[in-house]
Amino acid sequence: MSERTTIPMFPLAILPLPGELVPLHIFEPRYKQLLQDAENSDIAFGIFFNHTLNEEKIGSLMKLESVIKRYPGGESDIIVKCVDIFSMETLFRTFRSKMYPGGDVRFWRVDLNELAGGKLSEVFQEYMSKRKITRHQGFFSLYDVANQLGLDISERYRFLLSDDSGRQRFLMQKVKFQQHILEREYQSRDSYHLN
Description:
alpha+beta
């Protein structure tokens, strides 16, 4: 883990995974100010996972990708991308002289390109083919796999807090479960016919 640093913070009950693109609707004055700072100074900010599940006080480091729409009242629809995970030590009501919160964090420095193991990659490739998704590079990072599986909040939390081999095993179970669901779906198509 890296040394402690203070970053702008946006507490939300979501836990984006590295590499994930997330749409946000910005409407509160303090977060409008955060968006303005992100646009003007190209700063990253944290989404602190504001949930009772979060005993480890983790969150996602986000970078602004694009502003999709601006509304007359100053609200905006934006897309942000998760570029790292952090552990938070302290959450502050305000960040320096700004309206929005801040926090002391330590970045995990995740490797966004950490490859899924051979067996996991092979099973995931089969799963993607069954879903008829063939436009991919042929190799997958752990986070590519996790982001394709639609993990719920508790699964995301468990995945991030697992060690390397635990993450591989967890994703292998999830991919196999999704394959099972797809197979059942195909079987049911053959069993039911519309009049």
